[in-house]
């Protein structure tokens, strides 16, 4: 089947590569000529493990191409997936302007019946408005609009697309359903659940899923704060409640709060939608507040570790991306914690395997180092912010010997206090212990 993907950001590029791996003929389109040139040259403009191999394999097979032109590829496509960014506005609303313009351009380019699939995250009811905008631009266009939200986790996005726990498809046409069945047949043959719903339900599933996961993160961070006060170990608590299948053990890992492209954006948007609809989402509002406060609580931990002040001290920070195995800095906890430490007078040294490309501009206060040992040399404190695998097997004794003051704030609970103290650290703090 001939498919077009409009937008070569994180979602669009993963979808394009993986759909071509299903055997479909795919053209990925973007107005950014520099990005398209990189892709044509075999370079991936983001870090996502395994994506480079998927793209290269399908380009070589002739199933995947890249273009800055929209009209010609859309005219020959049976399905157009739209993965255009929908950023949040300052008031928590969603900026739909670029998506609306793109949908109208698509409508003008259609030459026959086409299924237009929205992968972009949009407010509840937006797909109906997008369809109306398309008909306004091209009254005679023959199309069905479909909501097909993505549930990709950065760092394992290729696996998530190829082996999803479910596929959600919102539509109102049997003709469109037949087309979507054909697209996702390789997954259905492997018994992946394909859930068909109405448009609004599919839109809501995306928001509700991310809000629920964000709630689990904020919940365990609140519990972690209480554990510190009463002498409990949050790891044991998380294990104890996570073994209950009604709770589950995923997203029960305390730390400096959630970040990334989805949780902050989608929780803000859901709160806005709830208020506008007269159904305030009070739990989600509390989740957002907890996530904000936990970042500040981490700053307080570091200050306490350093005797109440970091003025004139050198802090080595390990990891600044919002999670490991990605270069994404969007709403990363480091964007609050590092500037706060710098404002308090600290000199900041940063190490991150993939974060510098985005992080250098976002964290101008920091000096970047190649590895943890270089960053820790002569430092007054070591802070673990992102649990990259390379930080899980550090030689703690070597680090302690090289530091001016061997003190560690392990904000991802990678190590055990006894191991850190035994290796020569004079002070060690974690989260919820």
Characterization of the model:
It is a single chain. The relative contact order is 0.09. Helix content is 45%, strand content 14%. It has 18 helices and 14 strands. The mean pLDDT is 96. It is elongated.
Low-confidence region ranges: none
Helix content: 40-55%
CATH class of the largest domain: Alpha Beta
- Distance N to C terminus: 54 Å
Rg, Å, rounded: 24 Å
The CATH superfamily of the largest domain is identified as NAD(P)-binding Rossmann-like Domain
- Strand tally is 14
How are the secondary structure elements laid out?
Blueprint: E1 2-6, H1 10-21, E2 25-29, H2 33-40, H3 51-60, E3 64-67, H4 71-75, E4 79-82, H5 97-109, E5 114-118, H6 126-137, E6 143-147, H7 157-162, E7 167-170, H8 174-183, H9 185-188, E8 194-197, H10 199-230, H11 234-242, H12 263-276, H13 282-305, E9 314-318, H14 334-343, E10 347-351, H15 356-362, E11 366-368, H16 372-376, E12 381-384, H17 396-402, E13 407-410, H18 417-422, E14 427-429
Parallel strand pairs: 1-2, 1-4, 2-3, 4-5, 5-6, 7-8, 9-10, 9-12, 10-11, 12-13, 13-14
Helix pairs in contact: 1-3, 5-6, 10-12, 10-13, 12-13, 13-14
Summarize the structure in short.
The chain is α/β, with parallel strands linked by helices and 433 residues long.
